[in-house]
Amino acid sequence: MTGICRVHAREVLDSRGQPTVQVEVANSDGTSGSAIVPAGASTGKAEACELRDGDPRRYDGRGTLKAVANVNEVLAPAVMGLDATAQKDIDDLLCHLDGTPQKKNLGANAILGVSLAVAHAAAAACRLPLYRHLNQLWRGTAGGVPASISTDCRMPLPMTNMISGGLHAGGNLDFQDFLIMPAGAPSYREGLEWIVRVYRRLGALLAEAGYEGWLVGDEGGFGPRLPGNSVAAEFVIRAVEAASLRPGADVTLAVDVASSHFFDGTHYRLKATGDERLTSGQMIDKLAELVESFPVASIEDGLAEEDWRGWQEMTRRLGSKTQLVGDDLFATNPGRIRRGIELGVGNAVLIKVNQIGTLSEALQAMAVARSAGYRCVVSARSGETEDATIADLAVATAADQIKIGSIQRSERLAKYNRLLAIEEELAA
Ligand code: PGA
Ligand code: ZN
User: Fold this and answer.
1) 219 tagged catalytic
2) Mean of pLDDT over the chain
3) Within 13 Å of residue 161, how many CA atoms lie on the same side as its CB?
4) Which atom of ligand 1 is nearest to the CA of 218?
5) How far apart are alpha carbons 340 and 329 in whole angstroms?
6) pLDDT value at position 37?
C-alpha cells in the first residue's frame, strides 16, 4: 500500500493577483498531485472561512501565510502515512482538526487545498484520470440518489458569462452575470464554438452601440455600463441571433442576480434605474418580467441569502418553468440544502468547493441535492487559477451544468480546455 509521504503548501497568486494557497501531496510510490484554492468576491455569509493574514504590510492584509503554515505544521503531520484514496476519512480528519463548523481555526483555504491535492494524488496513485477517481468517490457518496439518476460520467452543459456586472465589474449593473447555455448543441465541443461565436458578436454589437465591448470583468465577460439589466439581456439575445443561432432553442439565457449584495435587510436596492427599493414580492415581479420577455432558463440568487420566505414565494411562482439556483443561499452546505428542500426553496444548487471546504462535503451536498431532484451546477469562483479540478468534478458527478465564467482569461480556459480533453476521452 502506498501512503502520503509529503505535504507542502505555498502561497501563490490567483487571477486577481490575490494570494491563495497551493498544496502538493506526494505518495510513497513516487506519484503526487497538487491543487490551488479559488476565492470569491461576492461571497455568502454562510461560506466556510477563508483565512487571511490581516497583516497590512503584505498584500494589504490578504496574505495567506497563516493558512499555508496551518497546512505545513498542523495538517501535513496528521495525514502523513495515510492512504490518499481514503478521501472521506482524510476529510473527516481535517474537519476534526479544525473543530469549528465554518473552519475558522485552520481556514477552509488550508483545508480545501489539502483535500483537493489528496484527490489528485490518489488519482495519480491509481493511474486514473482525475474524473474517473472522482466518479468512484461520487458513487460512494451518492447512496441516497434515486437509481433513476445515472452515476456515470457525463459532460455538463456550460453556463457561460457574456456580460458581467455587480461586484465583478465595478458596479456597472445591478445583476452580476448574464450568461448563455448552448442547450441545443450536439456536443460540448460544438457548444463551445457557439459560445465563442456569440461572445464575439456581442463584443461587436456593444462597441457599435458605443459601449465597452473590449475590456472584460473578473470572469472575462464584457463589463459595459448599460442603462439597465434588461438592456443587457437584449444585447445577449441580439448577439445569439447575429451568431445565426436561435434564442430559446439553440441557446438559452441565464442570470446570476447575486442579490444578497444589494439587499439591505428589508429591501432590494437597484441602482441602475435611479434608487429603486423593492420588496421581495416586487423583486419577484421583476424576475417574472425578465422570464416573460426573454428565454431565461435559469436564475441564480434571485433573492438574498436570508430571504427564505421570499425564496418560497419565488419558487411557487417561477419554479415550474425556470431553474432557480441557490448560491449564497445554500453555500454548498448540506444542512442549508436540506433546509431548502424542506421549505420548498429553489430547485438547483450551485456547487463551489471552497464554500464548504472539503471535497467530501461538496460531494455530500450534491448527493443531498440530487436525492431531492434538485439540479447541480458546479461553479468556479471569480478568483481562479490554472487549477482545473472542477472540470473533472462536474464530469465525475454528472453535474447538469458547469459555470466557469467567460471564454477569455486563461484561468477560465484551463477548465474549458480540460473539458475538451475529457470529452475526447469519454468518446474513445
Ligand atoms: P464569486 O462569484 O466567486 O465572486 O462569489 C461567483 C458567483 O456569484 O456565482
Ligand atoms: Zn452566484
Assistant:
1) yes
2) 97
3) 34
4) 4
5) 9
6) 99
**In the predicted model, is pLDDT for residue 167 greater than 90?**
no
How would you label 96-118 residue by residue, b for 16+ Cβ within 10 Å and e otherwise?
ebbeeebbeebbbbbbbbbbbbb
Q: What is the pLDDT of residues 238-260, one digit of tens each?
A: 999 999 999 999 999 999 999 99
Residue 169 pLDDT class (50, 70, 90 cuts): confident
305 in active site? no
Enumerate residues 6+ apart whose C-beta is below 8 A from 101: none
- 109-142 per-position pLDDT tens digit: 999 999 999 999 999 999 999 999 999 999 999 8
Q: CA 39 → CA 2, 24, 250, distances in Å?
A: 32, 18, 32
What string of DSSP letters covers 289-345?
Answer: HHHHHS-EEEEESSS-TT-HHHHHHHHHHHTTTSEEEESTTTTT-HHHHHHHHHHT-
Distance from the alpha carbon of residue 164 to the mean position of ligand 2, in angstroms: 12
Q: What is the DSSP letter of 142?
A: G
Q: What are phi and psi of 405, to 5 degrees?
A: 110, -150
Give the residue from 360, 363, 364, 417 showing the smallest Cα distance to 394: 363
Grid-cell match 429553489, residue found:
346
Report strand pairing: 157-164 vs 401-405: parallel
Q: C-alpha angle with apex 111: 106 to 117, nearest 5 degrees?
A: 150
Longest CA–CA span in the chain (Å) reads 65
Atom of ligand 1 nearest to the CA of 350: 9
- List Cβ<8 Å contacts ≥24 apart for 137-143: 137/87, 137/88, 137/359, 137/360, 137/363, 137/396, 138/363, 138/366, 138/396, 138/397, 140/88, 141/88, 141/360, 141/363, 141/364, 141/366, 141/367, 142/363, 142/366, 142/367, 142/370, 143/367
Give the span between the Cα atoms of 307 and 318, in whole angstroms: 16
Sheet holding 32-36, edge to edge: 4-13, 19-27, 32-36
- Which tens digits make up the pLDDT trace of 282-318? 999 999 999 999 999 999 999 999 999 999 999 999 9
pLDDT > 90: percent of the chain: 93
Which residue carries 505544521 as its cell? Answer: 73
- Is residue 258 in contact with ligand 1, taking CB distance under 6 Å? yes
**Alpha-carbon span 90 to 84, nearest angstrom:** 8
- Which is it for strands 348-351 and 323-326: parallel, antiparallel or unpaired? parallel
Is the overall model pTM greater than 0.85, yes or no?
yes
Among 352, 403, 411, 415, the active-site one is 352
Give the pLDDT confidence score for residue 192 in this predicted structure: 98
